[in-house]
Amino acid sequence: MSLKICIGKYCAARPELVLLAIPLIIGLYFLLKKNFINFKTEEEKEQYLVAKKKDKKFLLISRSILILLLLFALASPFTEKSITVPGDISLLILADNSSSFDLFDQTIAPKLANALNERIPVKLQYIASKEKSAIGDGLLNHMSGDDNILIISDGQNNYGRVLGDVILFAASLNSTVSTVEMSPIAADASVQILGPGQVITGEQNSYVVEVTKVGDVPAYNLEVMVDGANIINSKNAEQEAFTRAFSAGYHKIEAHINAADHFPQNNVFYKTIKVIPKPKVLFVSEKISPLLAGLKELYELRLEDHVPDDLSSYHAVILNDIKADGLADKVDELTAFVADGNGLVVIGGQTSYDKGFYQVSSYLIEGLLPVRVGVPETEAKSDVNVVLLIDISGTAGLSFGSLSGSSKLDVQKALALGVIEDMRPEDSIAVVAFNDASHLISPLSRLGDKESDLVTKIRSLQAGGGTLIFQGLRRAQFILEGAEGSKNIIAISDGLDAGSVAALDLTKTLSKQGITVFAMGIGEGTNEAFLKSLVDIGNGLYFEPSEAQNIRILFGEEPKEDEAFNLRILDSNHWITRGDLEITDSISGFNYVVPKSGARTILATAAGNPIITVSNFGLGRVVAVSTDDGSKWAAALLKKQNSKLVTRSINYAIGDPGRNLDFDVSIEDTAINKPGQIKVISDNPPKSDLAFSKIGNNLYTAPFNPIETGFIQILGADVAVNYNDEYLNIGINQELLDLVTLTGGRVFDPEDTDSIVEAVKTYAQRVKIDTVYYRWPFVLAAAILLLLEIVMRRLRENVLSRR
Is 603 strand, coil or helix? Predict the structure, then answer.
């Protein structure tokens, strides 16, 4: 793997080749010592050795310099300089022709094209059509590189390639993309309902109704109905929330706004709730547990003091503080139970994990868990290696948020400095900045005394260029190669990456090499989905900026003694902890465990001791709770504000409760003209007009394409069909206004044609980076040295021959 190294403005493309000088010079030394001539007499031999002794030192020096010069040439030294080249003074206008753009003046594009065409060559093309806003595809299909493009659109992309990815690609092609300011000429409001579509009988669930407004929307009433009963009637509300516990079966939620606005179709939203029976849970405990009262309300709970032979009727098994010897003859049954798609929750205490001999290999129970028994002292944080990746691309220069005066890069610098401050002096850290290339800020070495130097270098970073996290990850991979101890990468970025597939592929390789990848998402418009996929593959965690203190739990100094038992949510993006869940209490004890590779620690103490750790096992899930049931250590987890953590952990282990049903229909709510998928569990093929295909044991699936909004019923299951998502996200997409700056473009006033013409002329003068290689001076110097050596040796031979 090649590594570019720079000293000042001079760089070497393949500096590692210079290292070959060491073995070559050593080989030359031994070669010069050898004698390859057979002498007739001892006198001739003695004369030769005397002459060679005088020549050897000269040859060793000259040939060593010759080797170095040639290797320097092979290392490809170069400099980069900016050159300005003339370009094509023309403009391509891409005009939105989709339905959502009806809220704006659609004559802007042709009027602007006519006005500009009198001064510069202009071409007008229409992109997007009706209810398919493929803005990204339209841009990709029309840009050619080194061109000027003006997009007149609301930027609401609902089909095809992601607009942000395409604009980043345009930047890499040196295409300049701009847009114009627009105010709506029509007013509109859209409504939608957010919340879970499948819940458990009797469980309280939260729902939010949101209204998005564009323009001066007249007064309206927001009405929300559940199963036909009105529960909310609010005037001009933009958001309303409610909680509900539902009985078994299907339920319907409707939200209406009676606004006299432009699009009537987005004034009503439908949502179905599928309520499934309480899951069957086996609670195995040799003592009365304080958990039982709450769990009996949520699950069909059966209490046993041992694991029975037949587990087939349960969705999950909870083992509460059971000794390993009490499970030894049931490990095979539990393994098969979980591997078949069911759940297992193992709760700690005085007689489990390290106190219950789970580590004894003959008991086998540890092999089923996401943790292994371990004492923290034997798992010390010594030999910690961290590569800190800082995104310095063009998007990092954008505002952190609409209400913030700081850029994303400002926040990234602060977070990076916070990570460094939290690390111990004996930890090893490297810092790499990346945009569309990687830049080594500091090599991997002990933090120690270099902290102040790192602070200065990080504060001086500037934003610019495209975004390729792959480049940063590849440099980090090279840095961590051969490092002793834990290997970690912390990427601080907005995730607006132009090469996400390459980054994910490389992360798979990093994971196999034992490198853990963490990520912090920064600012509005962050591509959280990509960053979360990155850390899922890299066995790491995703952090919001407000969760940066969790880095201290993973890599930092030990907390104060009075804080060591405080609980911290380590992974707020897991299904268990997602949403408004907060834990601010502490426990008084725990079992000593260490997460296995591939497991995810959800909850930990401030000292980093895992409390809730999860992993998949076969088709099922296992949750390790390494504190007790609240009877002695963890009473805080039974408090009302914390109890959701316990129930969510059990629900996570349960997974889909419908899998054990003899007949079940699963359909997700969809939108008009958006194909949906029906899944049916049945002993026999479903009788329906739809074309079902068998995809598994008693599992059938069929597509359906709704053509009308409202509630429909298929095979006894209700499903909601809503308006086309073209009318969901309305108004100007702020992301478009931010992204055009990455290409050097601007947001113009459509009336200011002078500024547009002047900008096009300026953009046409493209600045390109020209690479100038300096191999020839080294080759020329080597040739001159060799020629001088030959001349000197000939002169010396002539002098000797005259004697």
Answer: strand
* Shared-domain flag, residues 537 and 492: yes
Nearest-5° Cα angle at 792, 789 to 797: 125
Bridge partners of residue 803, in order along the sequence: none
Amino acid identity, position 614 = V
First-residue to last-residue Cα distance in the chain: 56
- List the one residue out of 738, 737, 739, 744 whose CA is nearest residue 762: 744
Maximum distance among all alpha carbons in the chain? 122
How many Cβ atoms sit within 10 Å of the Cβ of residue 747?
A: 14
Indicate if 649 and 701 belong to the same structural domain.
no
Which of 196-205, 320-329, 779-788 is modeled with the greatest confidence? 320-329
β-strand partners of 148: 176
In whole angstroms, what is the distance from residue 780 CA to residue 73 CA?
10
Task: Compute and round to an integer the Cα radius of gyration of the chain.
Answer: 34
List, for residues 29-55, the tens digit of each pLDDT value.
Answer: 777 676 655 555 566 556 555 555 666
| Domain-ending residue, one of 523, 544, 565 | 544
Domain of 70? 5-81+774-802
The whole-angstrom separation of Cα 159 and Cα 145 is 23
Half-sphere exposure of 718 (CA within 13 A, CB side): 17
The CATH number of whichever domain residue 524 belongs to comes to 3.40.50.410
Q: Which of 178-192, 389-403, 624-638 has the lowest mean pLDDT?
A: 389-403
- Whether 751 and 778 map to the same domain: the answer is no
Q: How many structural domains does the chain have?
A: 6
